[in-house]
Write a structure and sequence with these properties.
By secondary structure, this protein is mainly α. The protein has one domain. It is built from eleven helices and no strands. The two termini are 24 Å apart.
């Protein structure tokens, strides 16, 4: 890793990371603040949810409102956080690689006493660090929200909440690896962002559609997002070991391929 480049890129992108992290923290604190009022009418709301078509509940993560983390998994982790981190992966991976190649800045970086491998590995580390920072802020805010707004009055399982955050990070470690690979192979910033966006939101759409009906449930099998199931995590039904290892493998292989292929490819003059 090129530590000088890493520090500079973290400095350049830190404001963006903090904006996403603080925004995520604010939203999750809002959810915790709302939950006590929701909990008082949880049984009535659960009846409404159960009256909906089963696919709608699966698609939008409506897992019931009996516990705080069940409410949060449906209202935030099942949809909003996924969209936020998808945008982060697509935008940041493009900025870290394809944009620099497109604007000619990559040639300037490589003119310094460093190697392509180190530059690519450093940029990948910046993306991973950004995702980790956003999820760390979100997790800390969640535990703070529990302490401030729930106390010991409402059911809350800290270990399941923590696992839900770990699962979210691993999902976007894998998604980030794929978008970074696309960016590493692209000379055009707009093209890289378009391809990364189509892949990421294509996966998301396939997973969402597959949840709506069992007739098209096969769509979920070709979506990376099917490995992320916050509702099952908070219910204690998820196979965290298998999915975590698979997501970590997908992300690790994608980042490794990005570094290897970027080192071997021809760059525009």
């Amino acid at each position: 890793m090129n530590m000088t480049l890493y520090k500079q890129m973290m400095k350049v992108n830190l404001k963006g990371f903090l904006n996403y992290g603080i925004g995520s923290a604010f939203y999750i604190l809002l959810i915790f603040w709302l939950y006590p009022a929701i909990a008082d009418n949880a049984s009535a709301i659960d009846e409404i949810v159960q009256s909906m078509p089963e696919g709608v509940g699966r698609a939008f993560g409506l897992n019931g409102f009996g516990t705080a983390e069940a409410f949060i998994s449906g209202e935030y982790y099942g949809l909003i956080l996924v969209l936020i981190l998808s945008i982060v992966c697509v935008q940041l991976s493009t900025q870290l690689m394809a944009k620099l190649v497109d604007q000619g800045s990559m040639a300037y970086l490589l003119s310094a006493p460093t190697t392509r491998r180190k530059v690519a590995f450093t940029q990948a580390s910046v993306l991973i660090s950004g995702l980790l920072l956003i999820m760390t802020i979100t997790t800390i805010a969640g535990f703070a929200g529990k302490a401030w707004f729930l106390g010991g009055e409402f059911a809350f399982h800290p270990s399941r909440f923590l696992l839900m955050n770990v699962a979210a990070f691993l999902l976007f470690f894998a998604v980030g690896g794929i978008t970074f690979l696309v960016s590493s192979l692209s000379n055009d910033e707009k093209k890289a962002m378009s391809i990364s966006g189509m892949i990421t939101f294509g996966f998301f759409s396939l997973d969402l559609l597959g949840k709506l009906s069992e007739k098209i449930g096969w769509m979920r099998h070709v979506s990376l997002f099917s490995l992320y199931r916050p509702g099952e995590i908070i219910n204690g039904d998820a196979d965290m070991v298998a999915t975590s290892l698979l997501l970590a493998l997908i992300g690790g292989v994608s980042f490794a391929l990005a570094v290897i292929l970027f080192r071997r490819r021809d760059l525009p003059l």
